[in-house]
Amino acid sequence: xxxxxxxxxxxxxxxxxxxxxxxxxxxxxxxxxxxxxxxxxxxxxxxxxxxxxxxxxxxxxxxxxxxxxxxx
Length: 72
Known about the structure:
The chain is mainly α. The chain has 2 helices and no strands. The radius of gyration is 12 Å and the shape is globular.
């Protein structure tokens, strides 16, 4: 879960920094996630589930090996 969050945060932040290429209404904010900090299970769980929710809701793919049908 933590490894997936690292990948998804990187992808999310790249998109948030490119509003001319990606919907700025979806990628409104950069996620401040320091890879050197141990956020613990609860924070990683919530972030992981937020990314799952966003991928389902907006029919997007943040990559990292999950296909859309695996997100249901």
